[in-house]
Automatic annotation (TrEMBL):
This is UspA domain-containing protein. Residues 15-152 form the UspA domain. It comes from the Eukaryota. InterPro entries: Rossmann-like_a/b/a_fold (IPR014729), UspA (IPR006016). Gene3D superfamilies: HUPs. Coiled coil: none annotated. It holds the Pfam family Usp. Signal peptide: none annotated.
Amino acid sequence: MAEHVTENGGVPLERKVMVAVDDGEYSHYALMWVLDNLEESITKSPLVIFTAQPPPSSNHSFTAAALSSARMYCSVSANPEYTYTIQDQNRKIAFALLEKAKEICAGRGVDAETLTEVGDPQTAICDAVQRLNISLLVLGERGIGKIKRLILSYLQKGLQIYICFDAQ
């Protein structure tokens, strides 16, 4: 299923693949899909695994994600120390998530680079794709809600996107 992209001389071009992950089963399915179906592409170039950290909230409601998909919601009057604590916790969770994904890749003999950024996931993914010159973005999603805008904008720019909708 891997596609060969070649120059005029027939020399294969490097194809950069990025998987955007979160703590859900659909992004895990997307990662496994890449490992199962894009073996040739990801052995010639490191696979980029990306996750976004929630931005600091301006309305003083904080969400801290956990690896088990549990969420902690608490509405408080934010002070700088508490905001830093939440950001630090989000950073630790993101690094643990990326480390887990990298271990899965290493178990399959795939070299993976990890990247995390703070911000809205759609914006952070778009920025990373542009900055890293990604050829193929793979996302796991249970439906096409918020991701639809991202897909439409990148299809217009010629980026190939594969979305895993079924985690079975």
